[in-house]
Amino acid sequence: MRLTTKGRFAVTAMIDLALQQDEGPVSLAGISQRQNISLSYLEQLFSKLRRHALVDSVRGPGGGYQISRPLTKVSVADVILAVDEPLDATQCGGKENCTDEGQCMTHDLWSSLNQKMLEYLGSVSLQCLVDKHRQKDAEKDAGKTIQFRDRPVGLNTAAQA
Q: What whole-number distance in Å separates Cα of residue 7 and Cα of residue 2?
């Protein structure tokens, strides 16, 4: 079982798009720069995402891509499956011909894992990932604030001496 670069990059690009799209259509060149993903690779991924109605393209100056439905209605599983990324832990690809005799002894185990992966990834929305990203950014920014007081206000030890 493995999630390949195609699925990882598609999810990463969709999160980037979700974070940027409030300012209008987002260019693939911008996503490419921010996420260090090849522009030609993004073009291939977004062609598939568009065919699966996950994104809309806007042509012309200032054009780019927008997510076509509310972020709460787009799951990670939707994105991964749209780019033809198989989520399969079985050795046989689900065909039940693992061995010459048919199913291997662990086929049901791996099939169950496939189902659990799809259920989990189907339960994680882009909105959830965007919210977590923004929360992490806010926490990181909060950690950078400068604290000028390291003792409670009103305690003047020099005046008490």
A: 10
